[in-house]
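The authors assume throughout that readers already know how a fold can be written as discrete tokens. What matters is that the chain and its backbone geometry are given together, residue for residue. A single example would do more here than another paragraph of explanation. For illustration, here is how one protein appears when written out as sequence plus structure tokens.
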Amino acid sequence: MKKNQLNAAVLLIAGVTLAQGQVGIGTSSPDPSANLHVAPTNRVNQNKGTLLGTMTTQNRNSIARPATGLMIYNTTDNCLQVNNGTPAAPKWECLSEQPEAFGSMNFGRYKPFYWGMTSGTIPSSQSGVPPYSPTNTRLYGAYTANGNFASNDIFRVDVARINGDSYAPILYNISGEAININYNTVTYGNPTYRTNVLLNDKQGSLVDGNFTTYFVEAQNIYVTLNYPDKWTQRKFLIGFNVFKEDYSSTISSGGNGSGKINQSMISYIFEFK
């Protein structure tokens, strides 16, 4: 048989069909749109499924430079997973039956918020933001007895006192490397935008455009990354919200009204899929 005839031939070997660059398993006529076509039944008409590589999370993480779109079944998480990242920066995600708006959520609760205000203040400018440290007494998060703030692999939420009774929410970079971000929020009902904000590791940015937030305000910001390239597809909704845990009185703008012991802050980090 000539070489060109051999290349065009259809080979049937144990139920596997090879035809013009297509592979059919259990079928002699692969669909023309498919490189690989697996039939739902075998040669004796028994229904069969398709089993992808099954492995634990530890086994999965040992795959060197997994291709974007690579699929496995994770026996640790009991789900079918696909790499939605890149070979250099894999992002393994489970395929769920119900689509969700958010891929993951982290949150923290800090109480009592008003009483947790630190005695040391920070200047109302970006240059006055102290480096992040869990023991920095200029940050609320140093007082772990009062609770915690949200954090993930890139960001850490914290709060500092500016002056009097006003506070400033701070978004910290704790990724271990420099990042460049865009974000927006609302200040006194007006949109506030910040673009190309460079944050070195442990460096923070005052979220509010006027650098102070009253207790009756809620700060919710949408954050995207410009750098490094491995994270440019990640998008976040991050929020700082003060609320009363009782109904005895409303929260005063300065936060120092009656019932301040029952004022708490919920912070959260939602990552979009």
About this structure: The mean pLDDT is 85. The chain has three domains: 3-38, 54-99, 104-272. The two ends are 53 Å apart (CA to CA).
